[in-house]
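quick one
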Amino acid sequence: MTNLKTGYAFSTRLSGVGSAFPARRLSNDELSKTVETSNEWILERTGIRERRISDPTNEDECNSSLGFAASKRALEMAGKSADEIDLIIYATCTPDTLIPSTACFLQKKLGASKAAAFDVNAACSGFIFGLSVADQFIRTGQAKTILVVGADVLSTFTNWQDRTSCILFGDGAGAAILERTEANASQRILSTHIGSDGTLWDLFHLPAGGSKMETTPEVLAQNLHKMQMKGKEIFKSAVRTLADYAAKAIESNQINLSQVDWLVPHQANLRIIEAVAKRLNFPMEKVLVNIDRYGNTSSATVPSAFDEAVRDGRIKKGQIILFDVFGAGLTYGSVLLRW
Ligand code: ACO
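structure w/ acetyl coenzyme *A:
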């Protein structure tokens, strides 16, 4: 699905970003005390040194609280208050509860009483799906100010006995404020592309906990309430589709990849990121990486890596940024924007 910015009076610009992580660091060495692995193996095969893990007994570290902390920072950067938000789109596959949406918990925490609020589930691609939905609301004149959050607490659904997957994941949140601007403004979202392939649903899934499978004692005993993953297959598909969606963004805007100042890919494995950069012939010096410190935080990877680089001054106003993601579903997407 392609959405180029044509035929509308308005366009969308990102005016603020923020991120938040739980306090607890879990190092590779610590993990290797509970599963048969090592710092060397994890670092070499994934690029991850440590990840952050939420304390399930701490209300301040549940999904909506991490989203709240990230949102407050994004609002502050944008110079906006919560009562100016028309819509909250919360991208997550690990909601606080199935009912109600995590977006509603966030609305309450922010006191954003004017906002409509709903969740989007596109797993690790969620933030980009959220941006794409928000862009439609703004361009069609339905909303002026939208908060998009990408936040996940995967640690709750990680099988900590499975060394092939538990080494990868961490918890975190990222948020962005999107505002209405002139159709041809310099700083704006230039394009969004999203896509899905449901035939590959079983490469990454969580069997129980939905309406199809109750969490009975038998289900718990079989760990069916934990994520299941076919890592090798995902790896191959991820490299191919990340390169494809980067190319879609470039081609549809009729620019060269060399004009992109920063590539912000989903952080699932450093080797995936390096393989994509190689395939695109794009220099790694212009690729944002935070997987070493946070692991795969699902829908939070892109906004948190972006936020970090905005705040430390690497990303400058007017630069062209390419967000590029894949996730369970499978789902894919890219957003090209001028910051
Ligand atoms: N420590 C030590 N050894 C391990 C570990 C570990 N943690 N995990 C696997 N191994 C072993 C395997 O058992 C295997 O041993 P064998 O050769 O004796 O059979 C060997 O290491 C190699 O295993 P591979 O699976 O070939 O390792 P690979 O290099 O493919 O790395 C990994 C595995 C890290 C999972 C990689 O395939 C990957 O990152 N895939 C993508 C996963 C992903 O992105 N998931 C999320 C997608 S959706 C979303 O983002 C929510």
